[in-house]
Fold:
Amino acid sequence: MIKLGTTRKIIISTLIALGVLMIALLGISCFWPINDVQQRSDLIICLGGNAIHRQEKTLDLYNENYAQKLLLINQFPYYFLKNGVSSSNIYITNFPASTFGDAQYCRKFMGAYNVDSAIVVSDWWHLRRVKWSFETVFKGTEKRLIYVPSYAPGVGIWWYLQPHRIRLVSSEWVKLVGYWVIHSVNSKQ
Structure:
């Protein structure tokens, strides 16, 4: 038989744990999304992956004259060509195999083509790792990078209570920590 004091301790401990979880999730909801102010740039970089949302946002930015050159990573140009983008304004690569590899390729590309600024488009849940990767790779350069989500996480701050979004952000946390650890080890060698 459980004593009343033990039951009360379990209830209080559970409520405290739930409160800490809610505060942590609220902190993540405020910290995680990135949405830089959109500024005119030399290039829009559309990262591969969830291509349709990223392509739609990239096309919107292109049509709003934020940049007139596109770099497509691991995707085909058909969507852009059928929507009026000239093939002479599209660069394509299928080389990088990771977000960090994308950043390394983009640094080389921007150097080779004398590109000083770029808008990087990806999903909202992916942009935190994208920003860390690009900022790490571009450190010490004069290149200006802006990070724009292909779509917003949702209305208000309560988006983080949706299980599929918790999984997305949790997965990105793990990958971001992994990138940081690998980079820290490699930079010390």
Observations:
- The mean pLDDT is 82.
- Residues 179 and 185 are 10 Å apart (CA to CA).
- The first helix runs from residue 4 to 31.
